[in-house]
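User: structure tokens for this one?
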Amino acid sequence: MNASRSGRAVEVWPGHAAPLGAHWDGTGTNFALWSAGASAVDLCLFDPDGTEHRHRLQETTHQVWHGRLPGIGPGQRYGYRVHGPHDPASGARYNPAKLLLDPYARAVDGDLVLDDALFGHDRRDPALPDPADSAPFVPRGVVIHDSFPWSGDTLLNTPWSDTVIYEVHVKGATMRHPDVPPALRGTYAGLAHPAFVEHLLSLGVTAAELLPVHHFVSEPHLLRRGLTNYWGYNTLGYFAPHGAYSSVGSRGGQVTEFKAMVKALHAAGIEVILDVVYNHTAEGDHTGPTLSFKGIDNGGYYRLGSEDRSRYTDYTGCGNTLDVRRPPVLALLMDSLRYWVTEMHVDGFRFDLASALARSMHDVDRLSAFFDVVHQDPVVSSVKLIAEPWDVGEGGYQVGNFPPPWTEWNGKYRDTVRDVWSGARVGVRDLAYRLTGSSDLYRSDGRRPFASVNFVTAHDGFPLADLVSYERKRNEANGEHNNDGEKHNRNWNGGVEGPTDDPAVIELRARQVRNHLATLLLSTGVPMLTAGDELGRTQRGNNNAYCQDNELSWLDWGAIDADLWTFVSHAVALRRSSPALRQEAFFEGSEIPGTELPGTGRTRDLAWFAPNGEQLTNRDWFDTGLQTIGMYLDGRGLRHRDERGLPVVGDSWLIWLHSGAEPVDVVLPGAPWGDGYELVLATEYPTGIPPRPTVLPPGGVQLPGRSVWALRVLRTP
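Assistant:
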């Protein structure tokens, strides 16, 4: 028997050490918590009015404290108080005055309220524990039981080469959407609403990559400034859908609502990919709050300083780094990943600052335990795995170095494409690699072009409309005196900083937006669009809006650039209809047998043309002044099926990119490359669609300044 704080006696049975977390069996709930260094663990249950009942867990098995409470079921809120030494110098930060969230909680209820009681150490003498009770100010876990009717739903397994990713924030997507009911805006249900799903379908994307939905809280320094963490890269619960995104409350209903969202998106043919943050937690550095892991087993969960264990090794820039070298931490990560695949039906993950997960002792290690376990896990290895291949530590930039079957955010693609369209004289050699799948990065270890997730913008930085409009960031609203965010923007802005009424500058900026998007969608690899770039969204110069949970960040459905939206949907449709634009293997530049005509030679599956209509020479490849390149892609060997299921020969393409400010004369090559060319996308037009069908014979033609042309190759039968 255990006496509760209120005097109510409740019997605690021994229960089981596995699985970890709180699990209802129909008549009671088993609670299990790992802590290697604890001397005692109290399970704390909370009544609806907030009354707390403490129950000492008497059983330990292999460092797991466990007990079963009959009569405790779904909806019960709970937390833990863990006893042990408080000796930060040795890495121990136990303090039973602090209510701790179960790392395996399936749902989280309540907000984090800024108060000195959040901190486990005395603010004047960090060596001493703080005695104040934190329970009134921290969120609690919730026991759940959710028998969701999946009824045939399954992972979509869209081929990588067919994938078009749309990076989107759950709340920001629909907070201002007029066709989504007010009660559903900013929620999982809002994202699943037909009005938003139809937007995704019309755009042609195949996967929604959601900014973090693992339950997160805001950092104390933001709360002190009256701000919140909007993006969500401050995780506290790795199994729980973020409660504030639920339209039905956070007492477990968020789990059902999340599943319903996934099912609705799957029904529309759209995969769900989660942006996950397993590299650090919301507890920050040695000055941060004690909310869960710090108080459960600080030295077990975190990488501590080798010389001063009161400090944290920080490869993330967020104060701490989870120690994935330790089996209980690696198990937490893998259990979480498997849960989201098997129970929540998500189709893949994008790992934030993934290099931090791959560090063994100090260096990023391709043979780390993290990679080994992921590759061997039959569940996790079967879904889409995307790495953000860098962290903030020494040697952390690892673009191109993650092993199969990983894909990567290709930071070199982003930088090269931005440089080209900024007018920087970088030549065409690096651009050619990026346009064709970055074989210099991904070919040596047997990966395919789709290992490269191509992007020109992401949540972190300027949206595309601002990228071409601002040279200097405008982050004053973040409360850091404009010292946060990227320091420089190298992109061309028409010679005018920020908003302008000059029609010529407005038109040229709009063309630059189209140039970036056309380049992205015509490149080999997996394109990722940032939500709102297709609408002309602006953050008014803020390039680090992580703490702006307001109209600055939300999609503005009342200010849509309809021509731009048409342009993007047209470019996506071209990509999805042509295998040559989403090639599964690297082009070789090989001659194609049977394509020769008398006196002309053979075509190649990949060829590069200079403005004079001749193939690029070795000298051209190293000419940093060259601003015009023609990319020829022969798709005749790439058969696919049309809408009726009949096999058809793939289209061939000649794509011109011209980054110079002035028009340039180019020569369209004749036979055997093509008997003529149909202009199907041109960035000088607001929608990208020429006003009339345009068929051009081989020979001279003029490209407008700063433009992209996509020409379908025509051949006489």
